[in-house]
């Protein structure tokens, strides 16, 4: 093995979260190396919302955005929400992953892909050593961006087990129909149907672990479920399955030790939400945009390390709870299957609190950790029911000063 190259930060994983974190950290002046392994699921298709797409555009990821489809219509069969909903864009993961690597290489960020990646922390030198094939790097800080492969601290309250079953199909009869997506509730869970164009169909069934053991033996079981749905949207009776049915774990999980002085977890390594509550790309972007200020603080202002670590963990916890509550509310909208095990298990998790209070309630002010000049510091924030971590600025103006100027009482909560 060659001598290790010394950098400021090593990012392990080149998915959306790892790539965005690496680019943002380079923009802060750090030397960054990315090590990654080939995807275990290169044939997966995912949906991405317009909000997530715009976030990628705002970051400046032009090659990545070019690898994402134009918006397609989306239909839903879900209680009172049934009908046509907002559209979504499609990601063919193999093309998307190649575009992520291209974004890194375009910026001259060192990237190494290898079948095997190993890492070791040396307490004596306070350095990570990460090896990818014949190449290795050392750095005082590691970004954990390995998705669900990452080890996480045990949770106190686990969500019900969820498994996603993925299948490609070919349906020549639909070759001329424009692309669209559709989602439908079924007794065992919910089915996402993608008509990608040229007669190519892709299905993802999210179900409980028990159902997955029964259904994963045959693509025919998925076709049987689809046969009970609207044939104009979910037809599979004249489709032939392509390749094997893929089973992936999709249980929500939270990393309760997402940050330390020498390691920061981003993306699914930090929190993995229920697929229903908001696509994974959005939460990956969220954590990846928070992490650079935390890393910058750890490396350049170590006296604020505990403040930065606490700041990051609280935001990861908040995102996890918010996505969980959104998912619970969406499950509650479907009344037909609430006595089925899959649905019943998801009506009380993570808690009974609403995801959003309307109207929002101002509770007071408090000193909390904030991002200032790409560092974590303390600032006075406005605490509301929907923003328990605080609002520091509104339109560039300090939120507390603005509200006091307008006569809004802000009792101290410290």
Automatic annotation (TrEMBL):
<dbReference type="InterPro" id="IPR050407">
    <property type="entry name" value="Geranylgeranyl_reductase"/>
</dbReference>
<dbReference type="InterPro" id="IPR006905">
    <property type="entry name" value="Flavin_halogenase"/>
</dbReference>
<dbReference type="Pfam" id="PF04820">
    <property type="entry name" value="Trp_halogenase"/>
</dbReference>
<protein>
    <submittedName>
        <fullName>FAD-dependent oxidoreductase</fullName>
    </submittedName>
</protein>
<dbReference type="GO" id="GO:0004497">
    <property type="term" value="F:monooxygenase activity"/>
</dbReference>
<dbReference type="InterPro" id="IPR036188">
    <property type="entry name" value="FAD/NAD-bd_sf"/>
</dbReference>
């Amino acid at each position: 093995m060659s001598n290790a190259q010394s950098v400021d930060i090593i990012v392990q994983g080149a998915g959306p979260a790892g790539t965005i974190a690496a680019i943002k950290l380079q923009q802060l002046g750090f030397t960054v190396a990315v090590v990654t392994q080939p995807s275990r699921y290169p044939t997966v298709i995912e949906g991405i919302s317009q909000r997530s797409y715009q976030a990628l555009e705002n970051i400046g990821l032009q090659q990545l955005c070019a690898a994402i489809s134009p918006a397609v219509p989306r239909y839903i069969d879900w209680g009172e929400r049934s009908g046509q909903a907002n559209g979504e864009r499609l990601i063919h993961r193999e093309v998307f992953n190649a575009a992520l690597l291209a974004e890194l290489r375009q910026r001259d960020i060192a990237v190494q892909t290898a079948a095997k990646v190993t890492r070791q922390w040396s307490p004596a030198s306070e350095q990570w050593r990460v090896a990818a094939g014949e190449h290795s790097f050392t750095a005082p800080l590691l970004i954990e961006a390995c998705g669900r492969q990452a080890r996480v601290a045990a949770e106190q309250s686990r969500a019900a087990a969820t498994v996603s079953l993925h299948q490609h199909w070919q349906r020549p009869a639909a070759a001329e129909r424009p692309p669209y997506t559709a989602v439908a509730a079924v007794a065992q869970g919910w089915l996402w149907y993608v008509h990608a164009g040229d007669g190519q169909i892709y299905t993802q069934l999210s179900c409980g672990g028990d159902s997955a053991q029964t259904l994963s033996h045959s693509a025919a079981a998925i076709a049987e479920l689809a046969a009970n749905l609207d044939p104009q949207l979910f037809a599979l009776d004249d489709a032939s399955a392509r390749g094997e049915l893929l089973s992936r774990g999709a249980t929500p999980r939270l990393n309760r030790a997402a940050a330390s002085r020498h390691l920061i977890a981003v993306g699914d390594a930090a929190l993995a939400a229920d697929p229903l509550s908001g696509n994974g790309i959005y939460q990956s972007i969220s954590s990846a945009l928070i992490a650079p200020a935390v890393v910058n603080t750890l490396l350049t202002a170590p006296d604020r390390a505990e403040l930065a670590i606490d700041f990051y963990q609280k935001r990861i916890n908040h995102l996890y709870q918010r996505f969980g509550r959104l998912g619970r509310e969406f499950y509650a909208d479907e009344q037909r299957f609430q006595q089925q095990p899959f649905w019943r298990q998801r009506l009380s998790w993570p808690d009974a609190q609403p995801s959003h209070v309307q109207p929002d309630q101002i509770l007071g002010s408090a000193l909390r950790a904030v991002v200032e000049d790409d560092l974590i510091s303390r600032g006075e924030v406005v605490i509301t029911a929907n923003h328990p971590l605080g609002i520091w600025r509104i339109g560039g103006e300090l939120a507390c000063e603005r509200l006091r100027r307008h006569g809004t009482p802000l009792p101290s909560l410290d």
